[in-house]
Specification:
The protein has a single domain, classed as Hypothetical protein af1432 (Orthogonal Bundle). It contains ten helices and no strands. Helix 1 packs across helix 3 and helix 7 packs across helix 8. 52% of the residues lie in helices and 0% in strands. It is globular and about 40 Å long. The longest helix is centred in the N-terminal third of the chain and has 18 residues. The chain is mainly alpha-helical. The N and C termini lie far apart (43 Å).
Length: 206
Amino acid sequence: MPGTLLPHEILTELRDVATGIVDEVLPNDSHGLVGNSAGPALYLVEHSIDATVLGLSIGRRLAPDESLGELGIGLFIQDIGKLALPPTLVHNPGPLAADEWELMMQHPLLGLELLRDDTISAPAKSVVRSHHERWDGSGYPSGLMGEEIPLFSRIAAVADVFGAVTSERFHAHAMPQQEGVELIRTGSGSKFDPAVVEAFLDVAGR
């Protein structure tokens, strides 16, 4: 699959599903954090939804309302590049070997390869490409730092990590939400944009 392009019909359907989530989330501004109790087998699907909901709640505190639709689409498809990886790698129940981890870190760029037409906008694609970049430059795939990372990707980084660590995954048990909140809080200024963390804590009611 690497180097291929997802059919226009599939991309349109994914965009429409994401838009539906946006339309459900934005009229409400209630505090709180979503939780993923679906278990490892449905992790990728549930995580995509949860990251979209949380990321939109954060984003409405930081970005213009008219841009939040594109943020939602980017959040929903941020891990689409994992479709180009072997399922045995994506669902590996243990720690990844060095070569496996190197391949896993390609999923943001593989995601862009799947989105090479104009069905998905550039701001949404920026989430796919850069949601694993980190404020201090320790992320991937390009080691971007600070405001070199697009705002939508900085929002996605927080939503992605919180959703991941508080979910049951093949290789890790879920941590309690409060521990997830503290992980994000302690990453402020190093792993995560402090302004995004502040908005996240507001959503969390902390």
